[in-house]
Each structure stands twice: as structure tokens, then as C-alpha cells.
Amino acid sequence: MVKKPLTSDQVKKISKQLMLAVLASSMVMTTCLSASASTYNLSSVSLENTQSVGNTVSILESNGWLESANVEWTEAKGATGYNVYCKLASASDSEYKQLDNQLIRKYSSYFRADVLGLSQGDYVMKIVPTINNKEASLEQIITKTIKVKANTREGFAFASGSPMGTGSGGYKDDGTVASNAQIVYITSSNVNKVTANVITNIKGTATLCTGITDILAKRQKGYDKRPLIIRMAGEIKAADIAGLNSTGYLQLKGGYNVTFEGVGEDATAYGWGVLIRDSHNVELRNMGVMLFPDDGISLDTGNENIWVHNNDIFYGAAGSDADQVKGDGSCDVKKSTYVTVAYNHFYDSGKCSLCGMSDTENFYVTYHHNWFDHSDSRQPRIRVGTIHIYNNYFDGNSKYGVGVTKGSSAFVEDNYFRNCKYPMLSSLQGSDISGGSVGTFSGEEGGMIKAYNNKVEGATKLVYSKDDATQFDAYLASARNEQVPSTYKSVSGGNTYNNFDTSSLMYKYVPDAPENVESNVTTYAGRVDGGDFKWNFTDADDVKSEVNTELMSKIKSYKSDLVSIGGNSVVETRYWTK
């Protein structure tokens, strides 16, 4: 078996390692090396009242991402800390804003800082070593111009007719921090010690809460609707957190206007999952989730306007049922509505996303730009709901892609199905019962799929209505705005398509052409820069549904390279000026 070629991110990491090796062999930076790092060294500028650490910071790389930017650098000899700043590239130097100390981290061979909450645009970052609580301004260095992109705020979580109108949580829809937002940083060492004031009654009384589970529990009654941003740095294990619920979840219940996000490439929930219940306008992003005991991410009951995006979801802990050897659901949506699940990377999940369980009322969910990377099934598996599925990359799926039951309606458009065995299934008809099969979906009634402009390669079987008007998997539309005639019905239950996508329910969105889906999704799905956990499947994995033992072994032995959090920053009021 031949491994896939190195990704651009892996090439970048190798280049960084080579640069570190060169730096380790020499105390003097050459002009050539500084140029290759694309930085502007300001050590020749004369400044008053400055300190010197003896050698300058050397930037390894600086990058823009989705509403964030980051920089990595080598340690400056003699420095006791670092201040890091950011500004728009076009702004004056007086506009530099200092990053929070917790956004600066030390790794085994470099330092890194991430600035979060940026709107789309061009930025620069500045690193200033500190010594004896003073900035060594002679040694400061500024990055090249960093381009920051906006997140794609589309789908039902952002529908104008939805209850909250947004799923941006503690942020504004331009990506910047909401006014009056609280920001709480959690790490493995402070997750039970961090404090925040929470409004706990109708009179507006503020209660000081200690530990993340206490902070979230006190917000359950919904008195405190101030924007809250929880930023998680590094790996946090289940054993680190006091107060997880009985099934191993960190529970966000009754919350309003909350973002739970990872910092940088390596924020990892190890051995626990996230449960969101009875919550409104919640965003969950940029986390790795490993060996969770139940579901990885569970949206369960009473939620509205939830945005789950840019997460890396790996194997869960094996359950007691035969179909739970890779864990239970990776990202399940039950009794929740106006949800967007986007740009997530599912690594060989057994059951990606159950969408509807005991639901009896219609609900609305969008799945877009997710990377179903050799995951087996439930991408998603739908009951009752109204679901839009576009621009996802179905990459080597051994069982099926989209499954509809119990009268659900799914619009499946502009996706790329590569070696997905059964791209689309409706219960008890078409491919679901081909070859005498009893069906995949526990004998439930069928639903309806409208398919448009999908790219399908290597499927075992896919039956469109134009080829069989009764035993079809999906109705094939010739135009996006085509309505499905009511004469097309599911064999079991006689259910028709509800044509939601041509009604006033629909939101604005701009789909990619299916030819561009693979490139876009593999570039931006998952955590920042693809996260710190790298794995490439082979073509032989396309047809396998059993646990990949090598992947499981790597997950079980995972350990973050993080050494410490905080740059020993000094709050400065003096900014560099020319």
C-alpha cells in the first residue's frame, strides 16, 4: 500500500523542523535565513529605554486562518517572556493591540501565539522579548503581512427566520468579539480553578463561580445572557475535569450566546465529549475530540441556532454494542433545530451523525464542507427533519453516505462522493434493499432525497428517479430550483419531498462547484492548519469498516507537545514607533 503524498501542511512542518536544526547549529542568523522566514527585523532601529537580550527572535512561520492568525518563533537567549501584538497591516503602529498572555504558548522547540477574533483582512504581528519585566524593543520583530479569511456563516444556524438569527455565539457575525463579552481561558491545570462572575437571578445578582463546570452550571437558568467565550488551550483529559456528568460529558445547558473554542492547532478534549442542551446561539469550534465515552458532540433536546464547525473528531471509546467499536455518534443532532454542522473532519468514524432520534416535529439542519474521511455511515442518518447537505467531501466510505427515513426531506447538492459505497439511501427501497437486503434502517419508513449536481465516482450503486420512478434512491433535479413533483413518493410510508429549498425557509448561500470541493474541504476542514494530529489513509481503507489498529494506537498514545501556557507577558503602554 502506498501512502498519499505529503500535504502542504506536512511540507510546512518539515520545513520548520529543518529551520530549527539550522538555528540549533548556529547562534548567528544569516541574512539569507531571515529572508526565507519572510520577516522584517527591527533590531537596527534606535529606541529609547530599551533592554537587549543578546540575540533576536527568529520567526519560523506566520499564517492567517479563519478569523485568526498565528506566529511561531525560536527562543531568544536571555528572554524571560514575550509580549505579542497585532494590528491591521494598513494601521498605524499606535493601533497595535497586545494579545492575552494565555494565547502565548511554549512547545518543545518553539513558541507560538494565536490571535483570535479577527475580521477578514490583512494583519501583521509583532513579537517583543521581555527581560526583567521590560520590553527588549531592540530585539522585536514583525511578521510578513498575514491574510485572514472569514468563516463561512451559512446554513440554518444563520437563517434570517431562525429564533436567534445567528450561531456565532460570543462573537459578532464579522468574527470579532461581541460587546460586553466575557472571555475565560481553560487549561489542564486551571480548568477547576478558573473563575467568572455569573448572573444567577432575575435581580441581576452576580455570583463568583469557580471551575468551568460550575460556571456553566450557574448559567443553566438563563439569567446570564451576556456573550461568553471559553477558550481551551492544549490537551485536557477527562481526569483533569471535576464535575463531568455521568456519561462523561462537559454539559452546556440553558446557555445563551456562548462560544467554546480551541486555541491553535492542539486543543484536544481527551476522553470526554460536549453535551449541548436547551441552549441558544452556541458555537463549538476548533477542538480535537478523542476517545469520548458516549457521543463526541451531542446536541440533545431544546437547542436552536447551534454552529458546530472546524473540529477534528476521532475514534470514541468502544461501546457495548457491535456497531460501537469506534465509539458511538461523532456529532449527533437530536430534538434540536436551526443547526449548522460545517468544516468538520471525521476520521474513520463508525457513525458520524445521527440527525433526529425520537423527534416527532420537523427541524432544520445544514451540513456543509465536512470531510467524511473514510468514515463508514450516517453522514448523516436522518429521521423526520428537513436537511440541506452541500459541498461535503465523502472520501472512501465503506457503507453509505446520506440516509433518509421517517418522511424526512434532504436536499443533497454539489457534493463530491469518492468511493462511497452507497452515496444516498432511502429506507426500504432502491439500493437499500438491493440483492435481497432487509434494509439498513431498522425497518423505518422511507424519506425523500432531491439530488443536484453531485460528483459521484466509484459508487457500488446509485439509482435515480429517471432510471426507476419507484425503486429510486434519490430524485435527480436538472436545476437547483426545480421542485420535486408530489407523484414521487417513498415506497414505505408514501412520503413526499417538502420542497423546502424553493420556499421562503431557505437562506442565502453560495455553493462551490463539486470539482472544487476536495481542495476546499481538505484545506479548511478541521482545526487550524489541519491540527497537530496527522494521518493519511490509503486507497485500501476505502472499503474497510473495522477499526484501523494503527490509527487507534496513535490516538491512544497521543500527547500534546505543549510545554507551558503563557508568555510571562508584561502589560505595556509604550508602543514601538518609527
UniProtKB/TrEMBL annotation:
Residues 1-37 form the signal peptide. It is found in: Secreted. One of its GO terms (biological process) is polysaccharide catabolic process. GO terms for molecular function: pectate lyase activity. One of its GO terms (cellular component) is extracellular region. It comes from the Bacteria. Its main location: secreted. Residues 219-423 form the Pectate lyase domain. Keywords: Carbohydrate metabolism, Lyase, Polysaccharide degradation, Secreted, Signal. Pfam families: Pectate_lyase_4. Belongs to the polysaccharide lyase 1 family. PANTHER family: PECTATE LYASE 18-RELATED (PTHR31683), PECTATE LYASE 21-RELATED (PTHR31683:SF18). This is Pectate lyase. It comes from Clostridium estertheticum.
